[in-house]
Specification:
Blueprint lengths: L1 H24 L16 H21 L9 H13 L9 E2 H11 L5 H10 L11 E4 L17 E4 L1 H7 L9 E3 L6 E3 L8 H5 L1 E4 L4 E4 L4 H13 L5 H8 L9 E2 L3 H10 L1 E7 L2 E5 L5 E5 L8 H13 L6 E6 L7 E5 L5 H11 L3 E7 L1 E5 L5 E5 L2 H41 L2 H9 L4 H12 L3 H8 L8 H25 L2 H19 L6 E2 L18 E7 L3 E6 L15 E8 L3 E6 L3 E6 L11 E2 L12 E7 L5 H6 L3 E2 L3 E7 L3 E7 L10 E2 L9 E5 L4 E6 L3 E6 L13 E2 L9 E7 L4 E6 L5 E4 L13 E2 L6 E5 L1
Parallel strand pairs: 8-17, 24-25
Antiparallel strand pairs: 1-3, 2-3, 4-5, 6-7, 8-9, 9-14, 10-11, 11-13, 12-13, 15-16, 18-19, 18-20, 19-23, 21-22, 21-24, 22-28, 26-27, 26-29, 27-32, 30-31, 30-33, 31-36, 34-35, 34-37
């Protein structure tokens, strides 16, 4: 719609501008005399201009037309190749640079890179189900290799492209001015090929997008014929005929019949794609997995690299190596260890690599509305088929009317020939006595009562064409043309015969270019279950966590104390675990996170910042961390304070002395986003997490301390702010908390490094919420050494 307006007005603007410049140069026009200042709200002006831009992108670039299935750039490329360069399938190849230049210079006022990429895509058999362009040279690959520069490659049209373009010279479609009004271009191609469904389309516009999967030509034609026979045919029958997408790269489709019916009825939904694979046996009982296809639009080299990374990082211990042996066919070989469970390996790869991928369908395209204005609209399969059939009926009618017009014109000339053959000698005598072509034509018109067209056609005849044999040929041609004219008129007068012609065209296209499906739709596919433990090599390690939040793992044969750390950083804790365990992190913002030990980077360097693996918020820091065992050993837990178990009780205390007691459960299921365990007000932060005992001692940074009973700490089953456990003077906050039942000495870490030993019995027992008594310390308390 916007592109129609833009093309209609651009030519007029160009002509007006040229005229004004000419008048100005001759001194006949002064722009200041005709200048008018119009006041308009900036908001309204910005909105209007953005909407104009949005409509231009939607209709002029990003979305295909439901009738020919082409975006404007594709349409212009095909038209320039046929009309301007005559690059038919029987012609020689021509440089891609010539084609791109022709398109940009005459039809498409945009970038050469985008134009060339659009042409390249139409030549890629892994992108298009039925290619329209025959490319010679490097046109890219499934491995993500880009095509060679357009100065090196050549192209011409493929035979199937003529089914998109073939009737364009028969007045079957409307034409409009190009961007500079120097030429005409077709509004839409008179495509006999149902190109939008056959080749699909993807595009992102402003506020909308399209994502249409490719389909098999024979299946699409079957669905079209069902729709042609009965416009009220149910969606289920159409989907049964169409079957589902047919991707150029093959692959399996896992959707159920019900899911496919819903997708094609609503125009939206995910198509589940899975790579084809098979198991091969080698010598000495060895097995290997061979991947023979990949999901549509998946980069094969990146897929191989992803699987190789899993092998290097020992995420799939059953896999030994990967080789890409692909030629024209895909063949990626995965070497297996002896006695490996093939289905378990494939289950892991399907879950963790692009071997299983979704194609999200969005059937949005440009289509004529009731007022015959082209607008973007969401569609169902049924609506797409009906739009194409209505379009083809209109094309057939216009094609027949064009043929009828030419037949009538030729019959009119033949009638003149028949008239003069009745008195041929007189006609020759008139011509011989005439003064030139015009005089002869005028005299013939006067004598034989001919029209101007008839008279000039007779004058232009050669002498040998006036023989008796030729008049018989003319009468035979006249008879044949009258017969064809009657046939055309019968078709034009009958909607049924128009539909039969459309049917014949579709059947011809399906017979000529149809092929077997490449994608198999699995009715009863096997959903493999992953046994997670099978993909972890059990190994005793230290999971290291630094004060600045860097993590890594090292083998337990190494000393964690001497492990490499960033300058200014220090070791917070070294968890002696194995690779089947997890580590749980409590953070300053009141969140808890869980991470598998196998996800810790195995590194002799600094490791990784934890934000690389978990979604920490800005300013969020680790307060403490605990090991979560896969195989719970209570005796081992008692030997080491940094273990915890599911459902274990904790007391959470914030910097402002607020706290509560809770059970923390479901730690193994906590995702990368974390789980809220404590609500915090203002700038308050979670300061410490302790296991509850009979008594709890709290010490502030300025050295004030209190001891309270555990019973004074309320229990909560959900994240809460808590109650006041200790009060503080202005500027003071909690430094640490300790739970205990038997007296023991602790060492306070002081800011001036003069650490202080105290007995917990020295801290006076009071009620909760008090500021407490001052300890004999002269510096700020920053931590504890137990």
């Amino acid at each position: 719609m916007a592109s129609d307006f833009a093309n209609a007005t651009s030519g007029k603007k160009a002509k007006i501008t040229l005229a004004l410049r000419k008048l100005s140069a001759e001194g006949l026009f002064n722009s200041k005399q005709y200048m008018t200042i119009i006041s308009t709200p900036f908001r309204q002006e910005a909105q209007d201009r953005y909407l104009t831009y949005a409509l231009s992108v939607v209709s002029g670039r990003a979305l295909p037309d439901v009738r020919d299935g082409l975006k404007p750039v594709q349409r212009r490329i095909l038209y320039a190749m046929l009309h301007d360069l005559n690059l038919k399938p029987t012609s020689s190849y021509k440089k891609s640079a010539t084609i791109v230049g022709q398109v940009l210079g005459n039809y498409h006022p945009h970038g050469d890179v985008a134009c060339y990429e659009a042409m390249v895509r139409m030549a890629q058999d892994f992108s298009m189900r039925y290619c329209l362009v025959d490319g010679q040279g490097n046109f890219g690959s499934m491995d993500g290799d880009s095509a060679a520069a357009y100065r090196y490659t050549e192209a011409k049209l493929l035979p199937i492209a003529l089914e998109v373009l073939g009737e364009i010279d028969q007045e079957t479609v409307d034409f409009r001015d190009t961007f500079d009004a120097s030429k005409k271009e077709p509004v839409v191609m008179p495509s006999r090929l149902p190109n939008l469904l056959v080749n699909g389309a993807t595009g992102i516009a402003v506020g909308m997008a399209t994502s249409i999967p490719p389909h098999n030509l024979r299946d699409v034609v079957k669905a079209l014929l069902l729709q042609l026979e009965d416009s009220e045919v149910p969606n289920s029958k159409l989907v049964a005929a169409l079957k589902g997408p047919d991707f150029p790269t093959g692959c399996q489709i896992l959707n159920t019949k019900k899911e496919l019916e819903e997708i094609y009825e609503t125009g939206r939904g995910p198509i589940k794609m899975r790579a084809d694979w098979k198991e091969e046996k080698e010598n000495r009982g060895k097995k290997q997995i061979v991947i023979t296809s990949v999901p549509y639009m998946v980069n094969k080299s990146q897929l191989v690299e992803k699987i190789a990374d899993l092998i290097i990082n020992r995420k799939v211990p059953q896999l030994v190596d990967i080789r890409d042996e692909s030629t024209t066919d895909v063949r990626v070989v995965l070497e297996l260890q002896a006695d490996s469970d093939v289905q378990n390996v494939m289950a892991y790869l399907f879950k963790n690599t692009p071997l299983e991928q979704n194609f999200n369908v969005n059937l949005t395209a440009l289509a004529p509305d009731k007022n015959k204005v082209t607008v973007p609209m969401p569609m169902s399969l049924k609506l797409m088929l009906q739009h194409f059939l209505d379009f083809r009926k209109g094309i057939v009618r216009r094609r027949l009317e064009f043929e009828k017009k030419n037949l009538l014109a030729r019959l009119h000339i033949l009638e003149g020939f028949v008239l003069i053959f009745a008195d041929l000698d007189k006609a020759i005598q008139i011509v011989r006595r005439s003064d030139g072509r015009s005089d002869a034509a005028e005299k013939l018109r006067a004598h034989f009562k001919l029209t101007e067209i008839q008279s000039f056609s007779i004058v232009d005849l050669r002498i040998y064409q006036l023989s008796r044999t030729n008049i018989e040929e003319i009468r035979a041609e006249q008879k044949e043309k009258l017969k064809r004219l009657a046939e055309i008129q019968k078709i034009l007068d009958s909607a049924k015969k128009i539909a039969e012609t459309v049917k014949a065209d579709l059947e011809h296209v399906a017979k000529e270019f149809g092929d077997n499906r490449k994608s198999q739709i699995l009715k009863d596919h096997v959903q493999f279950e992953i046994q997670a433990d099978d993909f972890v090599v059990k190994e005793e390690v230290f999971a290291l966590v630094s004060t600045d939040g860097w993590i890594k793992r090292i083998r337990q044969g190494n000393d964690p104390v001497v492990s490499r750390l960033r300058e200014g950083d220090s070791l917070l804790v070294a968890h002696p675990l194995n690779t089947l365990d997890r580590v749980v992190f409590f953070t300053s913002l009141g969140n808890v996170y869980s991470m598998a030990v196998t996800d810790f980077p195995s590194s002799s360097g600094y490791g990784d910042p934890i934000q690389k693996h978990l979604k920490f918020k800005d300013g969020e820091k680790i307060v403490s961390s605990y090991g979560l065992l896969s195989d719970l050993d209570l005796g081992h837990i008692n030997d080491y304070q940094f273990y915890l178990a599911e459902g274990q009780e904790f007391i959470l205390i914030s910097s402002n002395g607020l706290g509560f007691q809770t059970k923390i459960e479901g730690l193994a299921d906590v995702k990368r986003n974390g789980k809220r365990i404590m609500k915090l007000k203002g700038e308050d932060q979670l300061r410490t997490i302790i296991e509850p005992d009979k008594l709890i001692s709290l010490i502030s940074r300025e050295g004030y301390a209190i001891t309270i009973n555990k019973n004074e700490v309320q229990e909560r089953n959900a994240p809460a702010v808590g109650i006041s456990l200790m009060g503080f003077k202005k500027g003071d906050s909690l430094a640490l908390a300790v739970s205990w039942s038997k007296d023991r000495e602790i060492t306070l870490v002081m800011k001036d490094l003069k650490n202080k030993k105290i007995s917990l019995k020295e801290i006076k027992k009071t009620g909760r919420g008090l500021k407490g008594n001052k300890l004999p310390v002269k510096s700020e308390v920053v931590g504890i050494e137990d």
